[in-house]
Design goal:
heterotetramer, A mainly alpha (447), B alpha/beta (760), C alpha+beta (255), D mainly alpha (179), A: 447 residues, mainly alpha, Formate dehydrogenase/DMSO reductase fold, D: 179 residues, 8 helices, flat
Chain lengths: 447, 760, 255, 179
């Protein structure tokens, strides 16, 4: 088992990847069908219902005007965080092990962002006017409010979407060319368009390499800023429990944390169902496991800080907030979050755990459930316990909200399933770089 | 383009066509819908589209008789505000008055005369015409009159010219059975005033100028007599002068809105308030505040009311009794009022005499800040002498059961809802051959009617009003239509006049319409008031503009209390229905701010107005002390069944910090079985399970004399509340400051109440 | 002046305390808690004036009340010494309003009357203003509300009926303020006189607990009330500089 | 392979053309509707001609629209007002007979609104008329129209342009029109 990664032959790489694009089993269609159906029934149908009747279809109420939609938005933005960010960091640090996974990780970023943006559309009251949040000249001389953290958010997310879109696309150009050369029919035409006439000259490779590194440098601060800015949607308010200086790093760490866990999940699935056992190995899980452990400790640390400052403040607002979080209506969720995100990840100390696939999958899913809970709690606990006790009210998500949450997952899966049939989901040329040049036909490297 | 083949060409044409069609439809879909500009064919005088017109009138939502100004635009009423010229409310208005607009535009209004086509109570009616329905009624009335049969007219408490019309109408029919029925009418207060002061009327309680108000159960800020006027007085007494801040003390078993506003809320055992008042009187005598010649008689009569014995009987600490008495005595002036629960115990009259006695002993009768008596109303006789008490209503039911009533005319009152089941009133109605109802709504009583003659809302009809209680000086106000009638309805006065015409009573009622009747009647006022106006028409127009007329005349009275009162001053222990073992709790039904006696229940604004004390909307509930709830193992929102000897009902528990442990309270107003979509089948009506006990001497229903038992049903039905947590948690939201005022001299002046004499 | 200075200057224009001093009016409401009886007349008056929908029992049960002014109630103590205080809570028209900074489309902003404006037809419904508001006086239209015919005839033609997905709140009855200004212009006056305009709640308050006016006018009733030692702002610590001034409730020293 | 993109585009050309034609059709259809069926000059219950009244006979606008100077709405004259002149003038014309029939039955004339603002716009004629703004500024040259049509796009841009140009005091405050 140890030698799996070297079992693939240099020439097999192209075949494996192209096969993953061209040869489509029945299972894929079943999976796509289910995901598509769930997206339709659980996401689009309730959303249209909500558009028709109003946000009232969701469970939000007067003090808790934000609910699961916004929690989902932060969650998906968070999930988007590891992909491109991790890929960039690892690219810049020349981590070999990155190469088998970064394409799918980046795709995760892109689609998470996409789903996050749809969550904004679902969240706001009149999505048909969402373009008013974009600055464009008009006869009325009306501009969006540039002082608004939400406006920063729009800018940051659009930039991040563009940046990570270009990044993933650029990295895939040589692969599109490779696939182009091995396919026929409509696929061929598609890849002709996608590969932009890539021929693999030295000049092209040089430019690609330079641009790729340049973008990687650019995206790292961008990614950090995006989630900082998302945190400001909350932290720039004066709501007790939200108005916290630590929120920006807290959100960034949380985002990378959930994103990394998300990568583990996706890689497990790819490895298992796309037959990439050769390329995605224990090494990757081991390394990601270490990263997860680090992030979990960081996350726990910040959480403890938050509790401490809440207690130390001694003000009624902060203190009640703290008490409510630990013992109030949402307390079971809080303790679930602590269990999943702070306690369970301690298992990662064991190398044996890190290198076992199924436990890692379970843990990664648990972490993301925990992280979703965290986002939900940030919204729900704080908003239902604000300054005036006379308007305190508990918020419980409605069926429509839960359905849309499930549907948004399905939407993500659908997009991802479509992606793996269009994008080579592991990087052909970079995986080859890790394999070394074959000595002669039929021979491959041993460990 | 040479290589475009036929197939390709067709595709292109098709695509172009579909695209063009879609574009066309898109443009069509974003067009404005057609809007119309419809001018009046002949515009009414002084009408301008886009400019609001204000009409002054009189509020018809409760008997207080506030003046209102109604804003209309394009011929539709848009907003009701208080009439600033009216001395009762001085431009202010309560929530119920604001919601009057929704009686006008209520979707469940009756739109035309109807005849019962099914069984009584089935609400099956067929539409008919006014001619037919009035002819039917007139024919029936004529037959009854000529046949010597009994005709009863049961009306809401009306005043002014409508009251006069009703009297003349019944006289013309040869019937003495004209009864006014208002659930909230303070019979006991009238009886007590009669006994102590010899006046069967309500005096003016000058809360505005009092420095110390001792309220025995009277929820004067919410629905007792004239709440808006009392609120004005309350605000003024508190912070409106340079004098000492007025202090307010409320004595009641369950904290009411006025209890919350008071500086001190003192729970006293239900029905023992009169004993407490006599205890205070005893202390006042001891304190030497009373110097009348009959001091010794009083002292002897009150000898049994020492602080200790009163403390034992009322549950109020002896120390508190001594303090209250001394504060009341020293206040310049202090005022004691009684109402609400106190008005509704079996010993109510005794209690209210005792409360009035406090005012008498400290000598603030006929003084600013005390009790001021009213002169007779300027038009018609003394008001409210027709009010039917519970005994009268029971007699009516009894007569009906014996078949002694041939025709019953009900005018806009709803006894089926407000009388307890035990009175058998609803069942008795079945024995009356003919019931005619004049009402704007299909209320419970109207469902029993054979002929429904829908009346105008008060915003569509002419009328006048002399506020009761008066303000110590004569006031009269005009109610005029502010909109043209929405439906095929008629004003009560016009219906009566029409019937009178058909019955040949033109002699006593020569007018064609209510408007003519009013104009005629107000000629008297014009003549007595010698206004600036040169002729009556100018005066009339001025009155219509201002909506109110007043005169600066105060009665100067000295009250002498005779010996018989002194001898009978004792307050008996209250009687209760049900024994204390089986029925351990006192039921305390109270009129809520929004619903009044139930008439607010069909107004969506009132249904959505959170109850101030509990923030509950839509529905009924039962309030209990936290200790009681704990003892019974009940939580907020648990559904309990409440049983008296006369029935039971279910309501959710609301834990209420300011109620005596042995008392449970329920708001009145919900639990309608008819009365439109907003009221029907919502909540429960605690009046239905009351025992038919009456207050001795006043004969009114003792609504607080029923004992009940509680049983958990095991179900939950939390009422809808708009408020969240009720504790401030040290957040300084409502901030307080100490009362640093000390006693000091002052002079109050009754004339500080604005009096409208000149109108424009 | 370099770029940074210019930037900071324009930033301070919004953030510096007192930028609103240059405005024409500073409409202010004072609420005397010692007079307030909690009767709720203001609530209904506001509903009537401002076309506030009837949301129904079900929606109220889900916490979606739509009353621009509400009466909050706070209990203290236990039986028999339980005390209840009421406080009317409405949009405080803050001069440093948190809601104004957060709206991405500037649907809420500070206008020249020192009022916190809410423009319904610009609102896209992010609801962030409601989150940022510490007084929780912003209400969201979860549905298109309807009036059972003919109740719609009571609607005030001077006030827009809001559609679903839009935030709304107390405007200090801006339609009345504008009308008063209109009348002032008709009379050839530059300014509105004290007492000439009253929001519906102030107009109707039976105990005269509410007063309204321009605090820039030193002789106005509100300016005088603000000098009362009892005057305070609710949640002063949030530094929102509200235009609603509360007067402390007097607690008599009972023993 | 270097020309592969061009080749691919050629392969895709038929589909692209269909899309292009459909799009062109969409735009054309939209403008045909907007230009030829603008819905801004609806057929009125009576063929009232502003050209004859305001143009040829020089009747001032505010002779009939009396409210404009003092109310938010300009006001449409009542049938009573029309009959004030037409009891005498042109009584034989079929349109006037139609008018007279409305007068006799006391029926209001259901005029169709041409200049209709959305409900969230609170425009007042009073202030604009008193500021001596020509009616034609917003309503177009009504005195030349037999059938009134909406000439000027009465949209927010038009209002704001004018308010900015004339430096209306707080004229760009949203609450000036939206409340």
């Amino acid at each position: 088992m140890q030698t799996e990664v070297r079992q693939a032959r240099f020439a097999d790489v192209n075949d494996d990847v192209v096969r993953s694009l061209v040869v489509t089993g029945r299972n894929y269609y079943i999976a796509l069908g289910i995901a598509g159906f769930v997206t339709l029934t659980c996401f689009f149908f309730p959303w249209f219902y909500q558009l028709y009747y109003g946000i009232g279809a969701a469970g939000m109420n007067s003090p808790t005007v934000w609910g699961t939609y916004l929690a989902s938005f932060i969650f998906w933005i968070g999930l988007s965080h590891s992909g491109t960010l991790l890929s960039c960091v690892l690219h810049l640090t020349n981590s070999e092990w990155r190469k088998a996974m970064y394409r799918s990780a980046e795709a995760m970023t892109f689609f998470s962002l996409f789903v996050a943006i749809t969550m904004v559309m679902v969240h706001i009251g009149r999505p048909w006017f969402i373009h008013w949040a974009a600055p464009y000249p008009n006869q009325m001389g009306l501009w969006p409010n540039f002082r608004s953290p939400l406006m920063f958010d729009v800018m940051a997310i659009m930039t991040y979407l563009t940046g990570s879109g270009i990044f993933i696309y650029m990295g895939a150009i040589p692969d599109f060319a490779a696939v182009r050369d091995r396919t026929t029919g409509w696929r061929h035409h598609l890849y002709v368009l996608l590969s932009l006439g890539w021929r693999g000259t030295d000049k092209e490779w040089h430019r690609l390499g330079w641009a790729y590194t340049f973008l990687a440098v650019l995206i790292i601060p961008l990614a950090v800023s995006v989630h900082s800015i998302v945190s400001w949607d909350f932290a720039l308010s004066i709501v007790p429990g939200l108005h916290q200086t630590i929120f920006a790093p807290y959100f960034v760490v949380g985002a990378i944390y959930s994103g990394t866990a998300g990568i583990v999940t996706v890689m497990f699935v790819l490895r298992k169902y796309m037959n990439f056992e050769h390329y995605i190995t224990k090494l990757h899980f081991d390394n990601l496991g270490k990263l997860l452990l680090l992030l979990s400790l960081l996350w726990t640390y910040i959480n403890m800080l938050e509790l401490f400052t809440g207690w130390f403040s001694g003000t009624s607002t902060e203190y009640e907030q703290l008490k409510y979080k630990l013992t109030g209506f949402y307390a079971p969720l809080y303790w679930e979050m602590i269990l999943f995100c702070a306690v369970a990840p301690l298992l990662l100390i064991s190398r044996k755990f890190r290198t076992s696939f199924v436990p890692m999958l379970i843990l990664s899913i648990a972490i993301n459930i925990g992280m979703y809970t965290e986002r939900f709690l940030i919204v729900a606990t704080t908003l239902s316990r604000q300054y005036l006790p006379g308007s305190w009210r508990v918020y419980v998500p409605s069926l429509v909200e839960i359905s849309i949450l499930v549907g948004s997952l399905a939407l993500f899966v659908t997009l991802f399933l479509l992606f793996v049939k269009i994008f080579p989901s592991i990087s052909i040329y970079e995986i080859k770089e890790t394999m070394g040049v074959p000595k002669k036909h039929g021979e491959h490297h041993d460990t | 383009m040479s290589n475009v083949d036929r197939r390709q060409f067709l595709k292109l044409v098709g695509a172009g066509g579909v695209g063009a069609g879609a574009g066309f439809m898109l443009a069509e879909s974003i067009k404005h819908p057609v809007e119309y500009l419809i001018p009046y064919p002949i515009p009414p005088e002084e009408f301008s589209p886009g400019i609001a017109t204000w009409y002054n009138s009189v509020c018809g939502m409760c008997p207080a008789g506030c003046g209102i100004s109604v804003r209309t635009r394009e011929g539709r009423a848009k907003k009701i505000e208080g009439n600033p010229l009216h001395p009762v409310n001085q431009g202010r208005l309560c929530a119920l008055g604001q919601a009057g607009l929704q009686t006008l535009y209520n979707p469940d209004r009756l739109t035309g005369p109807m005849l019962q086509s099914g069984e009584r109570g089935s609400e099956e009616f067929i539409q008919t015409t006014w001619e037919e329905s009035l002819a039917t009624v007139a024919h029936r009335l004529a037959a009854a009159r000529d046949g010597g049969k009994n005709i009863y007219l049961l009306s809401e408490g009306v005043r002014g010219h409508l009251a006069m019309l009703l009297e003349r109408f019944m006289d013309g029919l040869g019937s003495e059975h004209l009864m006014h029925y208002d659930f909230a009418h303070p019979h006991a207060l009238y009886a007590a005033n009669q006994r102590l002061f010899g006046e069967h009327t309500l005096p003016y309680y000058d809360i505005r100028n009092t420095r110390y108000l001792l309220s025995f159960g009277a929820d004067y800020l919410s629905n007792w007599l004239s709440p808006v006027h009392h609120s004005l007085g309350f605000g003024h007494s508190r912070q409106g002068t340079d004098l000492d801040r007025g202090r307010f003390v409320q004595i009641e078993a369950k904290m009411s809105l006025s209890g919350a506003a008071a500086d001190e809320w003192i729970p006293a055992r239900p029905g023992s308030e009169g004993i407490l008042a006599l205890g205070l009187a005893h202390q006042i005598l001891a304190g030497g505040a009373y110097t009348g010649s009959d001091f010794d008689d009083w002292n002897a009569a009150l000898a049994g009311y020492s602080a200790e014995s009163v403390a034992e009987r009322t549950g109020v600490a002896a120390k508190t009794i001594v303090r209250l008495a001394s504060e009341f005595m020293k206040a310049e002036p202090g005022l004691a009022i009684g109402g609400g629960a106190v008005d509704n115990h079996s010993n109510a009259v005794d209690t209210l005499v005792a409360v009035n006695l406090l005012n008498y002993l400290v000598g603030n009768i006929g003084k600013p800040g005390g009790i001021v008596f009213n002169s007779d109303p300027v038009v018609g006789g003394p008001a409210n002498n027709r009010q039917a008490n519970f005994i009268a209503m029971q007699q009516l039911a009894e007569q009906a059961r014996h078949g002694a009533i041939d025709v019953l005319i009900v005018n806009n009152t709803n006894p089926v809802f407000t009388l307890p089941h035990a009175s058998g009133f609803r069942e008795a109605l079945a024995s009356i051959p003919m019931i005619v109802s004049l009402s704007s709504f299909m209320d419970e009583t109207t469902t029993m009617a054979d002929v429904v003659l829908p009346s105008h809302s008060y915003l569509e009809s002419w009328g006048d009003d002399m506020p009761q209680p008066g303000l110590g000086f004569p006031v009269a106000a005009i109610s005029q239509p502010v909109v043209s009638p929405l439906y095929n309805t008629r004003a009560t006065g016009d219906i009566i006049l029409d019937l009178a015409g058909k019955l040949g009573m033109k002699d006593s009622m020569p007018w064609d319409s209510m408007e003519a009747c009013l104009k005629d009647g107000w000629r008297q006022i014009y003549e007595r008031s010698s206004p600036d106006a040169s002729d009556f028409d100018t005066f009339w127009r001025d009155v219509l503009v201002s909506g109110v007329w007043g005169e600066d005349i105060h009665r100067q009275d000295t009250v002498v209390v005779d010996k018989s009162v002194i001898d009978n001053i004792d307050v008996a222990e209250p009687e209760f229905s049900g024994d204390s073992e089986q029925y351990p709790f006192f039921l305390h039904p109270y009129m809520s701010t929004a619903m009044y006696d139930g008439r607010g229940a069909n107004l969506p604004w009132m249904q959505e107005l959170p109850d101030p004390m509990t923030s509950i909307v839509y529905g009924s509930w039962v309030e209990m002390n936290p200790a009681t709830a704990q003892q019974l193992g009940l939580r907020d929102g648990d559904l309990v069944s409440i049983s008296s000897e006369y029935g039971s009902l279910e309501a959710p528990v609301v834990i209420f910090p300011a109620i005596m442990p042995e008392v449970i309270a329920m708001p009145i107003g919900q639990g309608h079985s008819a009365f439109g979509r907003y009221a029907r089948d919502r909540g429960t009506n605690p009046l239905q399970i009351l025992a038919p006990l009456t207050a001795t001497t006043s004969g009114s229903l003792a609504t607080h004399a029923t004992r009940v038992s509680l049983a958990a049903t095991g179900r939950r039905a939390a009422p809808v509340q708009t408020g969240g947590d009720t504790r401030q948690l040290g957040r300084n939201i409502v901030q307080f400051t100490g009362d640093d005022s000390s006693a000091g001299g002052h002079s109050a002046n009754l004339n500080s109440i604005p009096i409208v004499v000149k109108t424009t | 002046m370099n770029f940074i200075d210019r930037f900071m200057a324009s930033w301070r224009k919004y953030r510096k305390p007192g930028y609103y001093e240059e405005f024409d009016y500073a409409w202010t409401m004072t609420v005397d808690l010692d007079r307030c009886t909690g009767c709720g007349a203001c609530v209904t008056a506001c509903q009537a004036e401002n076309n506030i929908p009837i949301v129904g029992e079900k929606e109220l049960g889900r916490g979606r009340e739509m009353q621009w002014i509400r009466i909050e109630r706070y209990w203290e103590g236990e039986y028999p010494n339980a005390k209840l205080s009421f406080i009317p809570m409405l949009c405080q028209q803050c001069d440093a309003a948190p809601c104004e900074t957060v709206c991405p489309v500037s649907a809420t902003y500070h206008n020249q009357d020192g009022l916190n404006a809410q423009i319904y037809n610009r609102c896209i419904g992010t609801r962030s203003c409601a989150v940022y508001c510490p007084y929780e006086v912003r209400y969201f239209n979860y549905y298109d509300h309807h009036w059972d015919a003919p109740l719609e005839q009571q609607l005030n033609p001077d006030v827009t009926v809001r559609e679903k997905g839009v935030m709304e709140k107390c405007t200090f009855c801006v339609q009345r303020i504008r009308q008063a200004k209109d009348h002032a212009k008709d009379d050839g006056r530059r300014r509105v006189k004290d007492g000439e305009v009253q929001p519906a709640c102030v107009q109707t308050c039976p105990s005269e607990a509410l007063t309204f006016g321009d605090r820039k006018d030193a002789n106005s009733v509100v300016a005088k009330k603000m000098n009362d030692p009892r005057a305070y702002h609710v949640l002063e610590e949030t530094n929102t500089l509200p235009s609603v001034v509360y007067l402390k409730k007097v607690r008599a020293n009972a023993d | 392979m270097s020309v592969s993109i061009v080749h691919t585009l050629r392969v895709l050309r038929p589909a692209a053309m269909i899309a292009l034609v459909a799009l062109t059709g969409l735009v054309v259809g939209f403008y045909v509707n907007a230009t030829f069926f603008p819905g801004t000059s609806p057929e009125q219950p009576i063929n009232f001609s502003h050209r004859i009244h305001a143009g040829e006979n020089q009747i001032p606008c505010m002779y009939c629209h009396v409210q404009a100077r003092r109310s938010i709405s300009a006001g449409v004259p009542s049938v009573n007002k029309c009959m004030g002149c037409h009891a005498e003038v042109a009584t034989d014309s079929p349109q006037i007979r139609l008018l007279a029939s409305y007068f006799e039955t006391k029926e209001p004339i259901p005029w169709i609104k041409v200049h209709d603002l959305p409900d969230f716009v609170h425009f007042t004629h009073k202030r604009h008329v008193q500021a001596d703004i020509e009616c034609q500024t917003c309503h177009g040259p009504v005195e030349t129209m037999d059938v009134v049509s909406r000439e000027a796009p009465v949209k927010m841009g038009l209002c704001l342009d004018c308010h900015r140009k004339n430096e209306v005091e707080h004229g760009t405050d949203c609450w000036t029109c939206h409340k």
